[in-house]
Amino acid sequence: MESKQTAIIIGAGPAGLTAALELIRHTSIKPIVLEVLDDVGGISRTVNHHGNRMDIGGHRFFSKSDWVMNWWREILPLENNNEAQIEISYQNSKRTIEVTQENTGESSEKRMLIRSRLSRIYFLRKFFDYPVKLNLNTINNLGLVRLVEIALSYIHIRLFPRKPEKNLEDFIINRFGKALYLTFFKDYTEKVWGVPCREISAEWGAQRIKGLSVGKALWHACKKIFSTNTIENQKNTQTSLIERFLYPAYGPGQLWQEVAKQVEAGGGKVIFHSQAVALTLRDGNIEAVTVKNLQNGELTTLACDYAFSTMPVKDLIAALGEPVPANVRRIAGELPYRDFITVGLLLKKMQPNPQSRSQQANFMPPDNWIYIQESDVKVGRLQIFNNWSPYLVKDQDTIWLGLEYFCHEGDELWSLSDDEMAALAVRELITLNMLENESLVLDRSVIRVPKAYPAYFGAYQEFDTIRQFVDGIDNLFLIGRNGMHKYNNQDHSMLTAHLAVQNIIAQQADKSNLWAVNVDDEYHEEKAA
Prior knowledge:
By secondary structure, the chain is an alpha/beta fold. It has helices at residues 14-26, 66-75, 136-142, 144-159, 168-176, 178-193, 202-208, 214-226, 252-265, 313-320, 326-333, 385-388, 412-415, 418-431, 463-471, 481-484, 490-506, 512-515, 524-528, and strands spanning 6-10, 30-34, 46-49, 52-55, 85-90, 93-98, 112-116, 119-123, 126-129, 244-248, 269-271, 274-282, 285-293, 299-303, 306-309, 337-347, 369-372, 381-384, 399-407, 441-454, 476-478.
């Protein structure tokens, strides 16, 4: 491979930085990473607000991919948890990993912590296990009448499934029954996406909850009685059922900051406040990228041999300009997205709830996430950052919450000022009986994330037309969540970057292996191996 070749990588999120480091490790291609923000990680970054850190969206570090798990631990080793070794089990194969602090000489803060997962649903002002379990707590919370309706509905759908599955509503009802769908899925899902479930593609369900069902959840509960709960004996467990995971001490941004350091130490560049505004397409290749400095408005044109895009497909097609066929421009311009707001609230204490399982003096629940199923508030999900990592919270006697709101850029929620948004979050915590009064709020922060979630409705039904066009550009690789308009997890975004670099090394023109990386499916590069 020729020296002095250059790859322009648009976006310093997990996919972009993975591609950059893989290029440095395995090729002579110099990566130049363009990032519009002043920090790396994209939606996986960690925002520091007065010493309290926010994980945007929440990120469990668990993957079915051996490659991803090893890659993460090369960047941040496992914590010293008084065990010299941890047994890892993937796909019926086992390996032993050395985890003693003496192996690396790193401080305990520059580590992957081993964390327990607890996510619950808040409905009827009560806590339900997530996934929903048929236990005494669920029976007491729902009542006999609702339980009978759920059971009969589930039996009915097993006997008479909806065929074909035309939309997300069909997909979920076929796996859980209509009564359970109406109780725990419909309102929350429509709060997240802003459209009825019957308008969302069934493909979204295949991406996010494939393989999970009432039967799977019950089987998992039975297995749990007779098995141990070590960190990584869960390779064959559906992701939604995983109960332990790895997590960087200072949040996901800590890992991506380390990756960025390694990229620059290896001769690459990460340039902040830089927006790709135009890509020069000639003879089936990207020849250059025009970059706008968002601090002074200056434009610079960078020649390239390869281009990796993690920017939203809508923006990429617009940046390619006139060479793009009219129908591709139309579809891209109509692609739907869901935007996201996190409100950080620092509390003295929460309101006690006998079901919260709190063992803290300040009544903090032990959950990572709490899914808010209640229809009388707009908040969709609640993060308790203390339970992700104690290093995220400056004062351990306080509670650091993230209230997550789903919206469309420019709508009523998005248009609220930061003060108005924070005030809404405080009011809704009080409405939910989780906070007694506003005087218990010590600090607040508001983070807005445009195009956080690529959506599976509307013009997405024609996405194959866009894919056919961009795949025809030989040296352009679409990777990551927004880059591919796929609701990928962090590890899947990394895998698309890894495979793109492997394709360059192998001089493989076919890019179908990138698109074959799917959420909660067996990972295709491992099948091939």
